[in-house]
Specification:
By secondary structure, this protein is α/β, with parallel strands linked by helices. The protein folds into 2 domains: 6-233, TIM Barrel; 238-286, no CATH class. The protein has helices at 15-21, 42-55, 75-82, 98-114, 131-135, 137-141, 154-161, 173-185, 201-214, 227-234, 238-256, 271-286; strands spanning 6-11, 28-32, 62-66, 89-92, 123-128, 147-152, 189-192, 218-221, 262-264, 267-269. α4 (98-114) links the parallel β4 and β5 (123-128). It is globular. It starts with 5 loop residues before the first strand and ends with a helix. The structure holds coenzyme A and magnesium ion. Magnesium ion is lined by residues 35, 93, 129, 153, 156.
């Protein structure tokens, strides 16, 4: 799976920001049709996104678009406008249950067939940001083969459950943990909440490290000056990569000699250490570091 360390949103009607996003070396760019776009700008945003996805060179940056939620009344027109420009994936906000994923996926399948495109190529990223979404996260995660990632939305969740957002985030911690744990159970990526105070680099770094320690593989961002901190934290360091390679080499050698657990640098290495070394190498490959 491709790296999705930072997923940068910008309003879909803001061509200048979409253009800028293609120049920043960010893993994912996601022009928005949902809450970042005023009601009277939805049509303009659809046209702008379709044009931008067609015309601009995104390089290695993933070409996403966020549609409006299922049941909003906008979702079908959003898909009809954006899919002809062949995005790499669609971000679906406020996913409450598996049926909503299936509806979008079936829509895309019909469209892919109509164009004679390979079915399943366009990926889905499902946002979990409502009480129902949290309760149904397991069904959502396993609803469809197109789903690559669960994206945790803290602010909408807090609004939905009547919680007050705090700096520590204890009010969303249960959901934040449920999303990352469920993603792991189904082999999906987990993408953490937005840090809206985009001038506060220290706060962003703290929250991103926390996400990384919880097991998240990426974070949503809203401003170019958040890219560097986030992509650095989610990419393994050179020292981590070097250690992981040594673990895998030692593992191969000990395995041949018929040993399961063995020692390296005075520490015991066995199943979990090997698994985490494999993860480090997978992340390094996805980030283009090896
Ligand atoms: N994507 C791409 N470029 C962006 C950007 C974004 N999300 N946010 C800012 N930029 C660009 C600006 O256009 C500006 O470019 P320039 O120097 O070439 O003129 C540069 O980065 C500096 O921007 P700045 O002046 O600091 O910010 P701003 O006042 O233009 O915008 C926000 C601030 C919050 C309105 C803007 O960052 C934004 O729209 N973020 C995304 C909001 C969104 O999509 N929300 C919904 C999903 S959560
Ligand atoms: Mg939202």
């Amino acid at each position: 799976m491709r790296a999705r360390r930072a997923l940068l949103f910008m309003p879909g009607n803001d061509l200048k920001k979409i253009e800028k996003a293609t120049t920043l070396g960010v893993d994912c760019a996601c022009p928005d049709l949902e809450d970042g776009v005023a009601l009277n700008k939805k049509e303009e945003a659809r046209e702008t996104i379709a044009r931008a996805l067609r015309a601009l060179n995104f390089g290695n940056t993933e070409r996403l678009a966020r549609i409006n939620a299922f049941g909003s009344g906008f979702e079908a027109d959003d898909l009809a406008a954006v899919l002809p420009a062949r995005p790499d994936g669609i971000v679906i906000p406020k996913v409450h249950d598996a049926e909503q994923i299936k509806w979008v996926s079936n829509w895309i399948t019909a469209f892919e067939r109509s164009q004679s495109w390979e079915v399943g190529k366009i990926r889905l990223l499902a946002m979990i940001e409502s009480a129902r979404g949290v309760l149904n996260v397991r069904e959502i995660a396993s609803a469809d083969k197109r789903v690559d990632a669960l994206v945790f939305g803290a602010d909408d969740l807090a609004a939905d459950i009547g919680a007050v957002r705090t700096r520590e985030g204890k009010e969303v911690f249960y959901a934040r943990s449920a999303v990352v744990t469920t993603a792991a159970a189904f082999g999906l990526q987990a993408i953490d909440m937005v840090y809206i105070n985009y001038q506060d680099r220290e706060g962003l770094t703290r929250e991103t490290r926390e996400a990384f320690e919880l097991g998240y593989s990426g974070k949503q961002i809203i401003h170019p000056n958040q890219i560097d901190a986030v992509q650095t934290i989610f990419a393994p360091t050179a020292a981590e990569i070097a250690f992981a390679k040594r673990v895998m080499d030692a593992y191969a050698e000990n395995n041949r000699a018929g040993r399961g657990a063995f020692a390296l640098d005075g520490k015991m290495i066995d199943g979990p250490t090997i698994k985490s070394a494999q993860r480090v190498l997978a992340r390094a490959r996805a980030a283009g570091k090896i």
